[in-house]
Specification:
Layout lengths: L1 H31 L6 E3 L3 E3 L6 E8 L3 E5 L6 E3 L3 E2 L2 E9 L8 E9 L4 E8 L5 H4 L22 E8 L2 E7 L1 H8 L12 E7 L5 E8 H4 L6 E10 L5 E9 L3 E7 L15 E2 L14 E4 L5 E5 L13 E5 L12 E3 L4 E10 L2 E8 L20 E6 L9 E7 L19 E5 L2 E8 L14 E6 L32 E2 L2 E2 L1 E2 L4 E4 L6 E4 L5 E9 L7 E16 L8 E16 L8 E9 L4 E7 L1
Parallel strand pairs: 2-9
Antiparallel strand pairs: 1-3, 3-7, 4-6, 4-8, 5-7, 8-9, 10-11, 11-12, 12-13, 13-30, 14-15, 15-16, 16-17, 18-19, 19-20, 20-21, 22-23, 23-24, 24-25, 26-27, 27-28, 29-38, 31-34, 32-33, 33-38, 34-37, 35-36, 35-37, 35-38
Length: 603
Amino acid sequence: MNYIINMRKGHGIFLGLLFLVPLLSFSCNKKQVAPQPQFTVSSAQVVFESEGSSSNVSITSNGNWTATSNSSTIWFTISQASGGSGNVTLKLTASANNTGAGREAIVTIKASNGDATQIEVSQPDNQNLLAKFAMVSPKLFTNNGNPLLDFMFTADPTAIEYNGRVYVYTTNDQQQYDTVGPGGKNNYGYIRTLVMMSSADMVNWTYHGVINTAKLAPYTYASWAPSIESRMETDGKTHFYMYYSNSGTATAMLTSTSPVGPWKDPLGKNIVDTKTPGVDVDNPFDPGVLIDGQGTGWLVFGAGAEKTPYLPDNARIFKLGPDMISLAGSISKIPAPYFNEASDLNFINGTWVYSYCTNWDARNVWPYSNIAKPSAACISYMTSKAPLDSNSWQYGDNYFRNPGENVGDNVGPLTNNHSHLFTFQGKWYFAYHAMYLQNYFNTTGGFRNVGIEEASVNTANGVNIPMINATFKGPSQTQLLNPFVLQQAETTAGTSGHVKFDTAGIVGNMVAKGQIDKQVLMVRGADFSKQIPSKFEARVKGTGQIDVYVNSLAGPALVSLKCDVKNWTTLSQQITQKIPNGAGNIYFVFYGDGFLFDDWQFE
């Protein structure tokens, strides 16, 4: 009986314990499912000191979370946008800072329970402009004058002096480059414009835009190798006569009463082509025009299949009519040894001087014992006192070797050769092209640029032209630039290489276009010796900024001119810093997508 009672008693205790254990278990589990929430973020601020730099942010959470940025443009990346419980390390990485301007954003880390933490992300202004623009041009941080324009490809130069300036006209290789890209080849097929530029000092060049031959003369397949002359006519105006290659098939021409246009086509057809009597060459192109001391016009041209390598018999000359748009007589031959193309003509002390580019053939025939054989694709010259008499022409010498031979500076690989000999302010100069900029534009497609060298022409005993070498240095500055008179933004001695210009509605006038990326324009040899500036002003439009520096891009800007206007406006700012007395280079660093910069002046 006791045993039974004890068993029942024990059983009761056992049942009681069974009942109690779940209660105890329930109580313990209740504490575990409701712990204190865990959500921490290690950083409240991230500062990127340089492009491409990274910063780590640690997140500890016992739930899910998301990471978002309020930046409207993607200028940094977050290694992951969401995660779960545990410890996670996010990496924030800055992208390239194309403008160099300071950037800010907020990154929000939000937990699933509603808790959130914000991180301030920023990058300070990048003022290391010297490093940014270190490898953009052979001119920007040097005293080099070549190539004349460092922001576009140009070739086949001609030049003329007018009202204290030299005007240079070229083939627009940039049009070909823009069409085929850096990986394409320059076969000249897409070039249907000619480039205009001018200078008063031989180092600061004003870009005047292009002559649209495709619009002016629709029969022009492609436009290359211009040649220009001018003459005062009976109407009291100076008339400009521009001849150019209509691809390889003919020579066309345009006229104007201004060196920058507007231009017009007075003939509506080629002035010379294969149907012209007496031409007798396959390629009547690469014209060279001359008005001699008596006011008479002459035109030389030619190229094509060789009769023999030594005397290809493809160089031609004729006299132009008084109107400069007609032939005044028959076409004569110039017996130019190893002739290829690129005819040019000068009149020096009563002597006609014909220059041309030689061919690439071996020099197996050479009858002159006292004159060296011309090198391949060099510039040689001949002289005559009676240019229509073929027998009167005498070979002079080779006076400019192919730039690719690196006689002088290494200005690029071998190329075709095209030149023009001219005077400016009583001094001789030689214009040519070489492949100066291909490395800077990341191309090997054969895109050319015009350079100029100082030249010597000896006339003591006939006409003799000593050898000229291609250089980066180029000509010396003939006069200092006056920063206290209105100067055009498209006047430059060096740039950041990829500056863009647009028409301003006035013939021959261009404006610099801002970009998201900072660009720089430089003018050389500004004269601050007679006056220290107190104010800077610029004509601008749109939203952007111009920072002005003198002599160096290091240190604070002399002026920071901010613009936010819809119409053309002249803005100004007082100058508080002192600048060195004397001549200096002025740098204009500008940016702003849609921002336009027309002209500037110090006071």
